[in-house]
Each structure stands twice: as C-alpha cells, then as structure tokens.
C-alpha cells in the first residue's frame, strides 16, 4: 500500500503553509487539526491524522542559508518516527547537523552542487539515510540539465536509491499532483528504487492514483490540514 508522509514547512520557528514554492507568500499554517503553529505540536497532529510513522520536514531557514534548528525532532526520532529533513544542502558537509540529529537526509536538485556531492553523501551516511529530491517547476528539473529519468540514472550511479518527485509549482495549490506520468516512467525504468511523489495532492484519490503509477509514498500537507484527507482518528491536538 502507498504510504502517506506528512509534510511540515518550518520558517522562523513556526509551521507555515507552502504555496507554489513561493516562499515570499508563506504564512503561518491554519489547520483543522490544531490551532498551534509550533512544529512539534503540528507534527503530532499530522502523524495522528495520517496514521503515519514518517515525517518530512522542510527547514526553510536552513534552505535560505541559516543553521538548521532540529532540537524539537528528537522526541519523534526517539520513539521510532522516521524523520526526513530538507535543509537546502549544497555540499555533503552541510548534512552533518541533520545526520547528527538522527534524521534522514534529503538533498534537493534545486540546491545540491552536483552528483559528486550526492555520492559523498551516500558514502558518508549510507544510501538508506539519503534521499534525492527531483525538484520540478512546471515539469522542468531545477538544477541539473536533463529530465527526471536522467536525474535518477545519474543518482543511481552515485549510489542513491531513494527519490522524491516534487512539483513545487503545485505545492499547496490544490490543483492535483500532475506527476503521475513522471512517476510511471521512473518506476518502469527503475523498479528497484524507493519513489515518493509530492505537490498538489487534494485527497485520497490522488494518493491512490500516484500509488497506481508506481509511487511507494506520497507527501501530503494541505490535504490533511484542510480535511481533503480525513483524519484516521477523530481526536486532534489542541
């Protein structure tokens, strides 16, 4: 079964709503699950609503060049939640704080300086802890030249076996994911990789469609906060 992986975007110590990758438009999250914007509280609410044990964190302050703030993730890791962090890595050494916190390392094509750095990440922290995010804007890869299939080919040569297909233009828009064809192509070309899709998911029908296309998991934020995907249980975190 395809997994739902809740997503939180953290800016200035608060959870914000991502809209189309336009960080200048991000505002504090408004959610049916919780009135709080504190990362730990929102994370608890999302994990409960999704029935998940995995969490994706975009540390927007780190992506904009500041040191990541990850102290709050420790209780989740200690109880066995698998936490993945995108901290805007440019080179492998940038992952040291993420790795030290015990989190999985996300390297995005938008910021990573090349596949040599991806290989360095895999060598330093093992392929199981490293995920390459293929960052798209309206279907075009941000960063390296080529299409998503060529990115996966080069990523596998660097030792990476976990991938995200993230359509930034659709994040938080409710327009639908628009990446099913990309996922289907990648799955056909590389049946052995871990493949996660994100951006624009509206509800369970989108999750199912992406799973049918070949995704192992789907990143979800707005659909959980807005009720497009109903909570697994009725209680919410205040």
Return the CATH topology.
Answer: TIM Barrel
Roughly how many Å is the radius of gyration?
16 Å
Kindly state the percentage of residues in helix: 25-40%
Structural class: alpha/beta
Please provide the count of β strands.
11
How much of the sequence lies in strands comes to 15-25%
N- to C-terminal distance: 30 Å
**Per the principal axes of the C-alpha atoms, what is the gross shape?**
globular
- CATH architectural group: Alpha-Beta Barrel
Low-pLDDT segments: 234-238
What is the domain tally?
1
Question: What would your notes on this structure say?
Answer:
There is one protein chain. The protein has 238 residues and is an alpha/beta fold. The chain has a single domain (3-226), classed as TIM Barrel, CATH 3.20.20. The chain has helices at residues 39-50, 60-63, 74-78, 96-100, 115-125, 148-157, 180-189, 204-213, 222-226; strands at 3-11, 14-17, 27-28, 54-59, 82-86, 104-108, 130-137, 140-141, 162-167, 194-198, 217-220. Helix 7 (180-189) links the parallel strand 9 (162-167) and strand 10 (194-198). Helix 7 packs parallel to helix 8 (204-213). The protein is globular. It starts with a strand and ends in a 12-residue tail after the last helix. Mean pLDDT is 92; it is low at 234-238.
């Amino acid at each position: 079964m395809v997994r739902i992986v809740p997503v939180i975007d953290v800016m200035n110590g608060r959870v914000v709503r991502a809209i189309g990758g336009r960080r200048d438009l991000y505002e504090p999250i408004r959610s049916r699950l919780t009135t709080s914007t504190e990362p730990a509280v929102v994370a608890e609410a999302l994990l409960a609503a999704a029935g998940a044990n995995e969490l994706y964190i975009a540390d927007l302050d780190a992506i904009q060049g500041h040191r990541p703030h990850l102290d709050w993730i420790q209780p989740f890791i200690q109880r066995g939640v698998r936490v993945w962090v995108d901290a805007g890595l440019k080179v492998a050494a940038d992952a040291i704080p993420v790795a030290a916190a015990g989190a999985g390392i996300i390297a995005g094509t938008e910021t990573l300086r090349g596949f040599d750095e991806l290989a360095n990440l895999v060598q330093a922290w093992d392929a199981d802890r490293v995920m390459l995010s293929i960052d798209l804007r309206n279907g075009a890869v941000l960063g390296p030249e080529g299409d998503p299939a060529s990115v996966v080919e080069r990523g596998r040569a660097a030792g990476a076996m976990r991938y995200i297909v993230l359509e930034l233009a659709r994040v938080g828009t409710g327009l639908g994911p628009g990446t099913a064809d990309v996922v289907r192509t990648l799955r056909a070309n590389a049946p052995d990789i871990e493949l996660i899709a994100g951006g624009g998911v509206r509800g369970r029908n989108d999750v199912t469609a992406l799973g049918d296309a070949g995704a192992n998991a789907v990143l979800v934020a707005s659909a959980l906060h807005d009720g497009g995907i109903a909570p697994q249980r009725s209680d919410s975190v205040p």
